[in-house]
Amino acid sequence: MKLLQPNVWLEQAKSDEKASAAKQLNECHRRYFMQQAYEKSVKALGLAILTRNQKSDKPFASVLGDYFLNHHTPLTVLSESVTDDAKNDIKKRYPKKHEKLIKQLTTFRIQLKRRMLDKVDAKVEGIWKKIDATRPSKNSSKVSYRYPFLDGAIEIAPCAYNKWDAYQGSRTDVENAIKELFMRAGNAVKIAERAC
User: Fold this and answer.
1) String of b and e for 75-89 (b: at least 16 CB within 10 Å)?
2) Per-domain boundaries in the chain
């Protein structure tokens, strides 16, 4: 299986993090760039784990895309991959390989969570969960970086929302949480590159 290299994802994550530091951004745009840095770091970490630990094939690459790579909220969607609906979807698409694919995906999810959460501060873990749960949703009941949503009973544009700190954590805390993830992803990428 040929995937984009984890170092490429990490490079883009760092670029997004740098963009989040621009002076003339609304906070919703800053948070969006921070979310992008988080998302791509998680993907870099995940791909580094795969590069090192698993032999994969084309069906697994497709399943990995559906339940990890093609989403803004990679850990949330990956966690949803263990539901009966997800397993039935995989079984329907790959009737002869579904058990192996589900096992590969489950193993990958466990390895990724273990690598991310090993000796991590509870505050950092909480911020990662909040970032991961913020999807660019058009559902007005969910906070979004990109689309209007309800704040209480009032519809609000993301650029007018002034509760980002309460929602995800202070900008400094979010930046520090992302830097922690950069470090973990960077270490995993170095290990994967040595293994190749």
Assistant:
1) bebbeebeeeebbeb
2) 6-195
| Cβ proximity of 46 and 68 under 8 Å | yes
pTM: 0.88
Contact 64, 49 (CB under 8 A): no
Per DSSP bridges, beta strands 149-151 and 154-156 are antiparallel
d(CA 125, CA 4): 26
3-state helix, strand and coil shares in percent for the chain, rounded to the nearest 5: 70, 5, 30
Q: What is the pLDDT along the chain (196 residues), one digit of tens a residue?
A: 444 589 999 999 999 999 999 999 999 999 999 999 999 999 999 998 887 655 557 788 888 889 999 988 898 888 888 889 989 999 999 999 999 999 999 999 999 989 888 888 899 999 999 999 887 778 888 888 888 988 888 999 999 999 999 989 999 999 999 999 999 999 988 888 777 6
CA 17 to chain centre: 14
Both tokens of 80, joined, read 């949803």
CB atoms within 10 A of CB 182: 20
